[in-house]
Amino acid sequence: MALSEFKVSLNKIIDEFHLTQLNETKDIDKVMVSSNEVNRTGLPLTGFFDYFDSHRIQIIGNVETAYLSTMSDDDVRNAMEMLFKNQIPAMIISRDIEPNPVILEVANKYNTPVLKTHLSTSRFVSSLIAFLNVQLAPRETRHGVLVEVYGEGILLLADSGVGKSEAAVELVKRGHRLIADDAVEIRKVSDITLVGTAPEIIKHFIEIRGIGIVDVKNIFGVGAVKDSEKIDLVINLENWQPKKQYDRLGLKTEYTEILGLKVPSLTVPVKPGRNLAVIIEVAAMNNRQKRMGYNAAQALNDRLMNSGDTEE
Predict the structure, then answer these.
(1) Residue 161, pLDDT score
(2) pLDDT at 210 over 90
(3) Is 210 exposed, middle or buried (0-12, 13-18, 19+ CB in 10 A)?
(4) Catalytic pick from 243, 248, 252, 271?
(5) At what angle do helices 73-84 and 101-109 cross, to 10 degrees?
(6) Annotation says 248 is catalytic
(7) 143 assigned to active site
């Protein structure tokens, strides 16, 4: 049973997938879904309920409909009684199939919503699971800026006043996109992927000291913003410390742990005269090259090692 501490309302699922409700139920706005898995209502129709998870949305497609058509109305009623008495969040029928009226009769008895989609069963199930994975994912909020640079999701972390927002504005002017400023809500949507978004109340806004709040979408256009982005690289910005030894080669990859996942990270010193936007662009392209299998620092090191062997 894949339960989450977070929940998503059934109404949000209805709006997302343009579902049609086939029966009248009370308090549908209070129905919450807490499992990111769904269930094809196959074996339960035969009376087998071992390992049945009542938190899952139940799906009926062509196969289940064909099976139900072989049953008498009394058998269908008994099967539905056993199913709906478990207080499932909802039943969804795919392919615009018209359900047996007995299904709606029993669903009404237990105040369970029955919904319908025009999508095929497989397509709808995969889309619904992907949606639930995002909505119910473990999450945390970090103080920072998230931008998309050359297709790479770059999370900028720094103390207040270092220049994260100013760097983000310069990147937007150079054709890149802003996802979040000040607060980045990070979700672990899979065992290998983190996705960042902005809290709804501050989405597309950015704060620049001396100017105030700026609406990036209205000033730079819709192409300058994005609602969400995976996090590929973390860049820690800090004021330049003359006595600190900064990495000049990049042979060793550093990581920042977020929600149990390790994300490649860099520490970039900031001082007057350094063009942060250009540095971040280069870091994004270099990170992409590394993921594609090419490491410039390693290539240079190999050249130096081979050069030494040749001289001998």
Answers:
(1) 80
(2) no
(3) exposed
(4) 248
(5) 30
(6) yes
(7) yes
In our burial notation (b when 16+ CB lie closer than 10 A, e otherwise), range 43-70 reads ebbeeeeeebeebbbbbbbeebbebbee
Determine the pLDDT at residue 1: 45
Task: Write the pLDDT tens digit of every residue in 165-187.
Answer: 999 999 999 999 999 999 999 99
What b/e string do you get for 238-260 counting C-beta neighbours within 10 Å, with b at 16 or more?
eeeeeeeeeeeebeeeeebebee
Verdict on whether the full-model pTM lies above 0.85: no
Measured distance CA(283)–CA(277) in Å, rounded: 10
Q: Write out pLDDT tens, residues 111-133.
A: 999 999 999 999 999 999 999 99
Which of 164, 177, 204, 226 is flagged as catalytic? 164
Residue 118 annotated to the active site = no
Residue scoring higher pLDDT (300 or 201): 201
Per-residue tokens: 206: 């950015």
CA distance 90 to 43: 17
Active-site option among 12, 85, 109, 143: 143
Q: Which of 292, 294, 301 is nearest to 248 (CA)?
A: 301
* Residue 202, token pair as written in the block: 């501050």
Residue 182 annotated among the catalytic residues of the structure: yes
Of the listed 40, 182, 217, 290, which one is catalytic? 182
